Amino acid sequence: MTRPGCFPRCVDENGVRTPAHSARVTQLAVAGTHLPRGLHHRDPGLRNCLSCRQGENIARHRTRRGTLSRSPEQPAPVHRCLEGAQRSYDLPGHAGMLFAALQGCLPAAPLFFLCHAKVLSQVNTRPVTIHCRNTRLLQQAITGFKGMRGRDVESQAEREATRFFSATPLPGPASQQVLQAGSEGQAVLPGPSTAGERKRAGRLRKLITRGPTRFDEARVTSRIQGEEFFTRVWPEEQHTAPSSPGFSLWDILSPSKSQEKKDGEEEDAEGAEGESHALVGPHPCPPTRSTPAVYVPLHLRRIHQQSTLFLPSALPSDLRSKLEEGVSVRDPLEEGLYVGEKPFLTPANRNIVENRLLRQNNRHWFSETGSLERLNTPINEQFYHHLPPHLQEAQNKEPLTVFMEPQPIESLQDCDEGTGGVLDLELCGLHFTHHPLFSPEHVLAAQLTQDYKLYKQRVNLGATRILQAKLVVLRQSLAKLREAGDTTNQLSQSLQPRHKTAREELDVARRLEIYRREVKACREEANVEAEKDRQLLTGLLRTWRSIKDLRHSSRVHATSIRLLIRKEEGDRAEEEEQRKVELEEEVREVLEERQQEYEAQSKRYEKELAEWKAEHKKRKEARRRQEERRKAAEEGSTPDAQGEEALIQVAQDDTLLASPEPPRPSRPPKPPPKHKVELEVLEVFSRTRKPPGEPVVSLELTQTPLPELHNCPDPEKKRRQAVAKIHVWLRVLVNNKLVTQTSSTTLGADFTLPLGHTFRMALSSWPRSLTVEVVEGASLRQTLVASITLPIPGCTATTKDAPEVAQFSGSQVVSHSHAGVGCGQVGSQYGSSLTTGELKYKLGWATGAEGEVLAPLGPPPTHAAIPPSSSTALKWVAPPEGGVADTRQWLQEARLDPNDPANAALIAHLQKSAGGRSVRGGGHYLEFEGVAGWEGGRGGGVRLRVLELRDQGEPLYRDARLVPALETQVLRDPLQNFERRTREMEEEAEAVVAVGDGGGSGDAGASGDGEAERVKEVGEGWGAELEQRWERVEGLLASLRRRLQLRYSPESAAPVLEDLVREESIPDIGTLGSSLAAVFRARRPLRPTRRPRDRVRGAALTDQHVQLIVHVARAFNVPVRDPQQQQDSLGGGVGGGGDGGCVRTLVEVTFQRTTRSTSVAEGPNPTWNQQLSFPFRAPNDNFSPGSLQQVREDVFLHLYDQVTQDLLDDPRLRPSTLHHRLHHRWLGSLTIPFSTIYANAKIEGTFALEEPVMLLGYTREHRAAHLPASSSSSSSPPNTPPGHLPSTSLATTHLSLYITLEPSLPPPEPLKAQFESSEPEEVVSAGREWVAALASRYPRRRFRTHVLDLSGRLVCLTRYLRPLPPPQELMCQDSAATGDIWANSEQFLTLLTGDEEEHAVLLACFFLHLGKTAYLLLGSGVPEGETCYVVTRESDADWLVWQPSTGRCFSPRHPFTPLHAVYQLVSQDNIWGNVQKYDDPPRVSLDVGGSGWRPFFGRGGLRDPGLASVQPPRLTLPLPDPAQVKELQERLELSLRDAFMKWRGTNRTTWNRHAIKVLRKLVERMEETRTTAAATAAPHHHPSGSSSSSLRHQHHPNHALLAAIMKSHQVCGVCVHLGYSTAAGVVAAVHGAGVHLTQAPGVEFALALHLHPYPGQVLSVWVYVAALVQRF
Amino acid sequence: MSVSSPSVFLLSVSGQVEAGRFMGGDNLHFNYCFTAGQDWEVVSGLEECVSQTACCSDDERQLFVWNFPIDITYKSTNPFGWPQIILSVYGTDFFGNIVIVGYAACHVPLTPGTHTRRLKTFVPESASTIQKLMSWLTGRRPEFLNPKIIAQGRGREVTRVRSHGEITITFNVMMKDFAKLGYDCGAPSKVPYLGAPPPPQTVTVPREGQSDA
């Protein structure tokens, strides 16, 4: 016996699908034929059964062809294993025909039966047996089959008890039969015979006809067990059948299969495989037993069926039967309660379920509404966002802030219109609700229309009805509650008196109270609504009546309006009855309420009265006492014995009596008697309800055709003519500019203007206003009726389907002589109103091709309309401010329906926030824990952060290679440090900018304090702090610059073709000419000129070898060895030891850790003419200008004297042996930052060297100094530029250099972008013009009026200058910063970093304060390129030029100035551009009053707007703490010594303590002498250009101190002076002096360091290093 | 780092530049170079090579066969900047000048196995007709300043190129530790080895010679 439910679905060989019962078929077949075991496999029917048995598997594994055997003897059964449609018409065989025929003739319920009818037939078998329980079906089947077969069909249904139908086979080959049947089938069955079927039939035919078929007489019976598996109660013998021993199919199959294989018949591989699959498929069914077929007579079965089966009807069931007894149907929806939306279920299915349940008598499935109780549809309209857990916990604050991923708004992204948008305005129609040409009837009609609209709205809303229904329900509930309360009271009293708790009672009372209140509120509300309804109705009717009167009186219809009134008579008696009931109920309620009110009042009254009585008594007492006292006073006896208490008493009495006596509380009025209440209620009823018997009125507004014009009376005719004459059109104005207008049309009789125009407007930005003007005009004149301002749609608003309505009203006053009523007239009956109307329109941004909203970019203006929120039913009543308690109260008072999903979010939120119960489960809060390894999103992870930073080109990570693949392997500390530093830098930047903006409001001091605090925190000392700050400032400047670049150069280096492709340039006439001329050119010209090099773009320079070429030409005025000292100097020179003034110098150049040196040249003016080249490595091999600007390396040039020491001890060996030691002594050095070289492409000129302040053992060649200029010039090479003549005044060593890059790198493009500026616009534009005008005339001179400040805004140059009181000393800080950013002096001093501009500004400000005429000079100089100097006027024609970064000054006439060109001068209130012919300083007249200068302000240009200075009024420069300075000094000295010893490497370093002591003394006086000398020398010695560095050791007063040492030792020392930036800088400077290179045996060293503090934490460092060798 | 948790993955590429077809030009040679991102490092093998000069075959195929081996192994931590091979083919022109004949670039295949790539090559065009004439006369055809440009996307918009021929490369790609580091390279694609010469139409050409950088 097969188990129901596990039948494999399969298709038998004829394609008849035998769902779910094939196993049974198998069983029957086996049972019926009783074939011997071994034969089973040969039996096609059985094999079919096998395939049926495993139909599922066959369906999967076998192809359609699916023959099991191809032997010619064997019939070719076709297995059609089709999975698919249940109603498969794919039935090419006989049974298929039959099946189809059955379906065809039983259209109504074919499936039910066919599903259970098993039609097993065989193509090849003679008789076809059909088992069918259903006789009707069988009859039909037989007829169908007969029809198909045509003949030889014999019905045995009547004869045989089994009622099977057997058809004898046709004579002739089966193939013919099939063919015949197939063709017949097509003919017979019009419905199911499809093309597919025909095709398959054809294929089948082919298959069958292929081999000659010789069939056995096998007779396969097909039985129909017309029984349902699911519902049937199986007969006893069938139940027992499985237990009976027998052979199962499974038992048969296994050996047969093996035998089959053994036989080795031609089995094609596919078939075998399919069969094996079929047999040992993954889910073999349990073996089934075969039992003999038992037939139960049909009528018995039918009876049985009727008793056991139930077919639920699909028709709706009776409502009454679904409800419990005594329960009335109610609809909560009608009562105004929220009923959720149920999930959709087809009515038929629902009815079936209901009927089934009813049949089981399960009424509890049904609700009061008489429908199935179902849960609401679980699909939630709202999206619930999962809150991160940390927010969930701490969310008692409102409103919640939740991090949301930024999401790009598509509309903004895909707008390709630039920044503009496309606005669509559709004007749908215009309708006047009042117009001067209205006839009186029109006015009334308008009113009627309006009222009707309202009426319709109210009717649709049905508020009154809902409220009344609700009232009824509430009353019922109240009554029920009362009843329940009574019964429970009684019950509890009678049964369990102890359990009746006060709580329950309270609860009931509270609920009663609530219900009562509710009923009252509901009743009042219902009354109000009903009254409104009544009023509206009566108003409508009244208006209609007056229209009718009017029409009647004027005998014309001016409007087409018509009100249809439908009356519905009701049953008067019933209504009266109902009314009476209602009346009674209401009266009762009102009475009750009044009574309660009265009780409450009287309670309160009693309480108040008691209070008042007590008070009154007190007063009485007081008065009495007062009276007594008065009497006592009159009698003259002073009651002094009473003392203090009495006094207090008196005071109390006085205050008591002074206050007015409160009035006696009045007794509350008695509750009104019943008849009064009845009257009241009756009155209310009369207002709100229709009197009984009055018909129910429903109204409808319709239109009727208007009468013709000639029927009208004269005034009306005139009016109509006027209406016909008038034209109305609309004008659309955007930003008060006329954009478009509609065509003018006449108004219809109903004063509507159907428009239907759509205007599309392309707007460049957000419109400020959008106005539609209604204009009307007759022939010539036109009047503006009204203008309507439309709200500008929000950025996502597109045109909607429903038009919006804008009301408008005009202001004109019109009166007409004809029937038109006019408008705006005071006192007129109809024409008192102004012209009004409404415009229907649609407004929104157009959508693009991909659905994006074409709104303008940028934020919408504030007055743009917020897009109206989507249809949320909840009208948001803003909860009052003030926290949870209020909200809770509000929630309670609002009494929101908690079932309504519109309120769900609010309620959940409120409950949650009010600390109430848990959130009403609505949404699924999916917990997405952070998926490990996911690197997107917020946070991301360390690795991702590192990758991001690398991508952004952060210096720290720019060169990072092989960033670890795993998160855990990335080093966190550097990243954290970096982040921290970045943060600090940002803060610092803000602080610095704030200092500038604040204009010196003491921020500096504050920051100084902060500094000091931080120092203490750090605890490492002040120096470290300074160093840290230095680092930070460096980073800050870099980030500032980068930010500027980012902001203002979107694509800093967009490549051009030359960057990518190397190509010959087009020859033009110039190149052709020059190439021709090259033929005749001298091969070795006497004066070669430099050929300009091809410009090479940076992007192409990857992997190229860029070289820095330094051409060292010569030096002037090199100090020579002092002959006096030379005699006893170290070892005695070999080369120039003899003659006193000899020096053997060489230049050592260091760049990027590569050091090259020139050969040695002799004499004070040596000439090398040597070219040194250095490989240049760009950072990260990136040669783009952006990255090249970041290169912070310097070219160091050191001038050394090479001293040769003879180490030979034995003079006898001298002729044959050389033993020398070379020793370099530092004479001076020069540092040129790479950025300067890069910016200028080349550097050429003569530069003054930084010299040691003290140079022991050397002297200047005095002979040269005293020579006349001519003689010295003769000694110079011929091609020296005229400005570079060594002169008598030359006190320092100068070096002629030419430095360039090969190939030349492209200079950085100046930022041409428009910067923001806080200046007045006219100043900025005037500046631009001024610069443009000058630059066109003098292209080589660079002019500018505005510069960038730290915050990246343009600031006028003049604003930088302001007299500033200098501190006692003025000290400048050298810096390597290069950039276009100008800081003001306070920022400069806060940062302690600045380039020439900052120094110059500060210096100029100080000069101004000193009362000097000082200008800022912008020009070009060496080596800094574009630079800034300060010019002061000493006397009329005497000027001094100050180099601010070094503090040197010189006359402009001086030939050796570092200043090369003068471009412009800036003073406190003006800017002058150089318009003279020359710009080299000696030839420039610096008198700005002259014609050679073109001012920026004044003289035809802009007037001076009096710009305020950006400088603070004064600088507060805190002096550093001496103790800290001391500490830093010690530490520096220590680290210097350590470094020194390290440099010495393996050599031992001995320190000479005595020398150190002496040097320290020396060094401490250095600063003092320097400043005093500078202060005194500068003004007086200016023609000779003397400067602070003119101090020479020969004149130094402290030189004597050294004398003692020099007697015993040979001393070679260097004094280095620099501004303090970092310890590393100091160390590098000392290293550059090269003292440590001394290799003499027994050499000792001395090192002394002094720090001189200046205000503003500027430090001057003096280091004296000396090497001492003991004299022998 | 222990064996169980590798910190880098390895990509080994071998194969050969097999043959090319070029219209015009003879005596072709090429050089190839690999570029890869910052996180990639060559473990062994040659990053740049110059091939021998090949002459056109005498038969109607007009083929230039180099059979030039590629063998390089990378290690990396990050698939960003996947290695690309860049080929620049040079040949002699009418006057015997060595001129550029074609550029091609392609990524190393992303899945292990044998892959054949048929790269279409291109050369930059002269900016103007007169320059074209000049370049033809002088034998200095326009060429990329740096062939690695064609492995990038940036700045390519300013160039104009003409396609000129094709070149066939076979890669044998092996990978190690990709799965351990969480990268799924998929199953090896079953592109048939080109040893048996299939008709050119049926060869799967996964991508053009262009790079998408």
From TrEMBL, chain A:
Domain of life: Eukaryota
PROSITE patterns: C2
Biased composition, class Pro residues, residue ranges: 660-671
Biased composition (Low complexity): 1571-1591
Gene Ontology, cellular component aspect: ciliary transition zone
Positions of the UniProt region annotated as Disordered: 235-290, 614-644, 657-676, 1266-1287, 1569-1593
Entries under Pfam families matching the protein: CC2D2AN-C2, CEPT76_peptidase, DUF5523
Basic and acidic residues bias spans: 624-634
InterPro entries documented for this protein: C2_dom (IPR000008), C2_domain_sf (IPR035892), CC2D2AN-C2 (IPR028928), CEPT76/DRC7_peptidase-like_dom (IPR056290), DUF5523 (IPR041510), Tectonic-like_complex_comp (IPR052434)
Entries under Gene3D superfamilies matching the protein: C2 domain
Domain C2, chain residue ranges per copy: 1092-1247
Biological-process GO terms, alphabetical: non-motile cilium assembly; protein localization to ciliary transition zone
Official protein name in the record: C2 domain-containing protein
TrEMBL record, chain B:
Domain of life: Eukaryota
PROSITE patterns noted in UniProt: C2_B9 (PS51381)
Chain positions covered by the region annotation Disordered: 194-213
Secreted listed as a keyword: no
Listed Pfam families: B9-C2
Keyword set, alphabetical order: Cell projection, Cilium biogenesis/degradation, Cytoplasm, Cytoskeleton
Keyword Cytoplasm: yes
Name this polypeptide is given: B9 domain-containing protein 1
